Write the structure tokens for this entry.
Amino acid sequence: MAFPKHLLTDDEDLVLDLRPHWWFLAPAGALLGIVTLLGILALVQAWGSLIGWTLFVVWAGALGYFGIQYLLWNTTNFVVTSERVISRRGVISKEGIEIPLDRINTVFFNQSIFERMIGAGDLGIESAGEGGRQQFSDIRRPNLVQNEIYRQVEGLQDRRLHRLGQAASSGAARELSIPEQIEKLDQLRRQGVVTDEEFDQKKRELLDRM
């Protein structure tokens, strides 16, 4: 199931929308395959007997378990946008987490030899705030996802600096005073267009010109 586009903001772009790696379904699929094979072999000899019906019930349970895992796989999204990282999962009840790109400090991944062969692995994100460190399993090609997150973080910083420069240039064109320019920058800070660090840096530059 694709990530709902209506959950994105007006100026937010969807970059990655990933399902868990197929390895997520491997245990349930292997169980269903083994039970099916044993059931076929046994039912040929014991159809209609207690053993045959028992195997049928076990097979039905394995099929139901695989179905539940598939629904969970299909309703799990790991999303990277131009502003945040989003993880959502759940069939009936939903759970999720959102990490703004400007709060991400470090992105790391871990792969065993086998996971490198099949293109799967775990991804970890360290961020500022209460969440601290988040771990995500069964990510497709986590090294490429790591690189893409870093690219989006840099892109977000570049866009904010560009807006900051435009705001300062606009203020200068209208011959605003330095206090007025600082007030305008503070408005952008409160709106979330620039961060506190960017505001403080530009404020110091303006005050040095007084």
User: Anything to note?
Assistant: The first strand starts at residue 14 and ends at 18.
